[in-house]
Write a structure and sequence with these properties.
three-stranded antiparallel sheet, mainly alpha, about 65% helix
Length: about 180
């Protein structure tokens, strides 16, 4: 399954598909809060803020992390409908987590008025928004011990650090070696 996920990420243009879905989610959510929002394709305007839209904004990294953790956390299960459903539910969860990440970064810019944030801030905020969604995809939360939670958080952090390099030159080799 990890191999199939790896091929899907490299052969299908998930980044563009997720980007097409994410931009309207972000602008729609901003408008719900009374913020004027315009999707201009290469950037999003939220009130007076102009947020450039890049490949990382699509939510593909969030999806990679959720799929990876879901597969790892359910590795002892047989491949069944429940696992397939969980993997499919990772898609709307990734879109929602990504929308919350972009809105959090917009709020950060609004409050602190930086012209840009470091890449580390982007990935930290993204990682923090993924944590609540992990509960949807991990089996038997009530009976999990501390070691199991440490393992899941460790894998999530590893994937969060790894995700940005997957699409860079040689990123596939780094990803396979890391995993």
């Amino acid at each position: 399954l990890l191999g199939a996920m790896f091929l899907l990420l490299h052969l299908a243009n998930l980044t563009e598909v997720l980007s097409l879905l994410s931009r309207p989610l972000v602008t729609g959510a901003a408008e719900l809060f009374g913020v004027e929002a315009v999707n201009r394709g290469n950037d999003i305007v939220l009130g007076d803020l102009v947020l450039p839209w890049t490949q990382e904004c699509s939510g593909v990294n969030t999806l990679i992390i959720l799929w990876g953790v879901t597969l790892w956390a359910n590795r002892e299960r047989t491949f069944d409908r429940v696992l397939v459903l969980r993997l499919l539910l990772c898609i709307p969860a990734a879109l929602l987590a990504n929308m919350l990440r972009v809105l959090t970064l917009a709020l950060y810019r609004y409050l602190f008025v930086p012209a840009w944030e470091s890449e580390e801030v982007h990935y930290l905020v993204g990682f923090l928004w993924i944590i609540p969604f992990l509960f949807m995809f991990v089996d038997d939360l009530r009976h999990m011990n501390r070691a199991r939670w440490t393992e899941i958080i460790y894998l999530s952090r590893t994937l969060a650090l790894l995700a940005p390099s997957i699409f860079s030159p040689g990123g596939s080799i780094v990803a396979v070696s890391t995993l």
